[in-house]
Design brief:
By secondary structure, the protein is α+β, with helices and mostly antiparallel strands. Helix content is about 20%, strand content about 40%.
């Protein structure tokens, strides 16, 4: 879990890997102060999904920075999204720790999933699926007809997550992303069948 701790005027980032500490025998020391946890298998989580508040922004940023494939937004972008009535920002939390987030534009019937990220140490534990499922349910309740999403061509994990939640690939935008340049695959989840 990536956490941001506040001490005076400074923020300190710490990492806890599923409760495995540096003195735990399941932790492998590579070199210097570089540690990698050795966790035999990932456990499925049942996080609580709730709307984000401004207090969650430092934790959202920490998770975002740890996820290269996530859109790299600024603090102000999240503050604006949380305050806007046509945006939905959800967080996944358990035991008062934030493990992931999703941001969607909800101002028209075709919602757009704008950003999603899960802390690296809890990927494949059901956090992303819980976030997507909650977004789909809120979209149904809000009368949306579909949810759209662009996914980097190289982000196979995001593609698999979308497909597992009922999204379908419907197209491609060449050279859509920068740093690095790559295509965007267009996905959508239909909520109302014609």
């Amino acid at each position: 879990m990536v956490e941001t701790l506040h001490g005076g005027r400074h923020c300190y980032r710490t990492t806890t890997f599923l409760g495995v500490g540096l003195d735990d025998p399941r932790t492998l020391r590579l070199s210097g102060s570089c540690y990698i946890p050795v966790v035999p298998q990932q456990q499925q989580m049942s996080p609580k999904i709730s709307p984000a508040t401004a207090a969650a922004i430092p934790f959202i940023l920490s998770i975002q920075h740890a996820c290269a494939s996530a859109a790299q937004w600024k603090h102000e972008d999240y503050a604006t999204a949380i305050a806007q009535p046509d945006r939905l920002v959800l967080i996944a939390e358990k035991d008062s720790k934030i493990f992931g987030f999703v941001v969607a534009y909800t101002g028209i019937p075709e919602w757009e999933l704008e950003n999603i990220a899960v802390a690296p140490d809890v990927r494949r534990c059901g956090v992303g699926h819980a976030l997507i499922t909650a977004l789909i349910e809120r979209a149904r309740q809000g009368g949306a007809t579909e949810i759209r999403q662009e996914i980097r061509e190289s982000s196979t994990a995001a593609q698999k997550l979308g497909l597992s939640a009922g999204f379908i690939q419907e197209g491609r935008r060449p050279d859509y992303y920068r740093d690095p340049v790559e295509d965007a695959l267009l996905f959508k989840h239909l909520l109302v069948r014609p």
